[in-house]
Amino acid sequence: MLKIAFDPVYIHPLPAGHRFPMLKYELIPGQLLHEGLITQENLFSPKECPEDLILLTHEREYWHHLRDLTLPPKEVRRTGFPLSAKLIEREIRIAQGTIDGCHYAMQNGIAFNIAGGTHHAGSNWGEGFCLLNDQAIASNYLLNDDLAKSILIIDLDVHQGNGTAQIFEKEDRVFTFSMHGANNFPYRKEYSDRDIPLADGTGDEEFLAILEDTLPRIIDGCTPDFIFYLSGVDILATDKLGRLAMTREGCAQRDRFVLNQCHQRGIPVQISMGGGYSTDIRDIVEAHCNTYRIADDIYF
């Protein structure tokens, strides 16, 4: 059964600039339910991630500043969000949703978190709408509990997974792979194990050719027993914050290739949705829903 963590904490009111992108967390499960692709049985609401698991990834001082709402104003501005207890609750539930998704993926091959993909959060900073790094927290959980010995994080959001790269820069058991816009945020990049910066205007043909040439060799090289996939749809040409030129069809081909690689090799995969900021929210929701449709087609 396809299991999907859905965002259980809606934060109202948000400043006007934040309301639009947050709508997708309600619209994606609504669309999938409307199509009959899933039922309520497929959805689960995660509890809060325990502090000891957060501290496997994030420094104690940073976490305590978040938890106690004492993050300095300059660091709050860097996150892009006004700090609140509801926001922190949302972040730790997202992290637990990704951890829970790992267990479902080990049972069923694949699992989703409708939120997550908070890859800009480093060990001691939040940035770009990311406060806690859900896939990094889940990776360290798997390693700490001997549930995985080798992990691959595939980050195909338009922005580099700088926080993820920093967190695992000295961890040989986690291979970080990021394909991203060279000129996109964050403007100060970290070093993933494999970074592929893409020129402005990169479209379907070039993007897919690079991915199809690179990903199988990475998987063969690091032989992961678990994969995390960040499937941001801000690679679309319609995205306000991206600089690439991918079509919705190309984005779907990207997802199909990644998921086929995982499925054919029998490697469980957890997917967090990442970014999407197209002017028309229908482009965002449809591109994200395609990822679920493709997963259902391949796995079920």
From TrEMBL:
Any idea where the Histone deacetylase domain is?
Answer: 23-289
Q: Which family is this sequence assigned to?
A: Belongs to the histone deacetylase family.
Name of the molecule in the record? Histone deacetylase
Q: Which organism is it from?
A: Mucilaginibacter defluvii
Q: Which UniProt keywords apply?
A: Hydrolase
Q: Cite the CDD domains for this sequence.
A: HDAC_classIV
